[in-house]
């Protein structure tokens, strides 16, 4: 390679250290081959049986944030002897960061919804870890029926009050529309000589049917409850209480 003098411009033989004309020292010209630049960490990952890449570490971090890949995704980069799960590589550090970010976003969202008291103070003090309030208990159906007969239906008025309260607590725990006010249900049932109970059983049946639990879905007995309330309100009470008992038993 000829060496060109930067002072006089003369072309000198390769290996010369000074210019043959002016005697100026020569600097070797530097030439760089234009090659495709490979990032320090060229990552590949497997999706649907196909290898995709190469990607930079920043790209992989973005894929994690967007749920394109996860901890079980097979990944590989230059220098690794074989494919590995992402959680077994240096990328696992981003799993911890992503998890911390998700938790922060979750709790931040809950703190912003301060209008619902059942999601803050009452959830901690009155409810268990599930959506069934601790105040709602099972009641023995036979005991309630016998007490209604023995007290000449007086106990049945209290029973209606108690069921209305339990159903409202269940609905409030899931932030669903509530049913009848317990005291209103009691007074209106007495004043209307039982006619109000028709509306009561219709509305409470709809509230129970709207509830949903991870391992249990209450049955919709609204029609049966309403029809039976026209003739035998006591049987409607038995069915409604049975539905509440099932929620307490299976809604945990």
From TrEMBL:
The UniProt record lists the keyword Transmembrane: yes
Domain spans labelled GYF: 43-88
Keyword match Cell cycle: no
All residue ranges annotated as the DUF4234 domain in the record: 139-207
Organism: Faecalibaculum rodentium
Signal peptide: none
Pfam families in the cross-refs: DUF4234 (PF14018), GYF_2 (PF14237)
This protein's UniProt keywords: Membrane, Transmembrane, Transmembrane helix
Membrane-spanning ranges: 140-162, 183-202, 222-240
InterPro entries linked to this entry: DUF4234, GYF-like_dom_sf, GYF_2
Coiled-coil stretches noted in the UniProt entry, renumbered to this chain: none
UniProt-recorded name of the protein: GYF domain-containing protein
């Amino acid at each position: 390679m000829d060496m060109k003098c930067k002072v006089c411009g003369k072309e000198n033989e390769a290996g010369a250290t000074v210019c043959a004309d002016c005697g100026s020292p020569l600097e070797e010209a530097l030439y760089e081959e234009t090659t495709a630049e490979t990032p320090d960490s060229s990552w590949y990952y497997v999706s649907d049986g196909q290898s995709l890449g190469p990607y930079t570490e920043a790209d992989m971090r973005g894929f994690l944030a967007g749920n394109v890949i996860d901890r079980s995704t097979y990944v590989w980069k230059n220098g690794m002897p074989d494919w590995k799960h992402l959680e077994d590589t240096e990328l696992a550090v981003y799993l911890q960061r992503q998890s911390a970010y998700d938790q922060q976003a979750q709790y931040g969202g809950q703190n912003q919804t301060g209008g619902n008291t059942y999601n803050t103070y009452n959830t901690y003090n009155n409810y268990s870890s599930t959506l069934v309030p601790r105040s709602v208990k099972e009641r023995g159906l036979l005991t309630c029926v016998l007490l209604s007969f023995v007290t000449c239906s007086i106990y049945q008025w209290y029973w209606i009050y108690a069921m209305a309260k339990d159903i409202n607590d269940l609905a409030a725990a899931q932030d669903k529309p509530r049913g009848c006010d317990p005291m209103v249900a009691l007074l209106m049932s007495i004043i209307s000589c039982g006619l109000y109970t028709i509306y009561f059983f219709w509305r409470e049946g709809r509230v129970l049917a709207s509830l949903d639990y991870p391992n249990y879905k209450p049955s919709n007995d609204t029609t049966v409850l309403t029809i039976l309330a026209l003739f035998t309100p006591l049987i409607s009470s038995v069915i409604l209480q049975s539905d509440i008992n099932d929620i307490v038993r299976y809604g945990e």
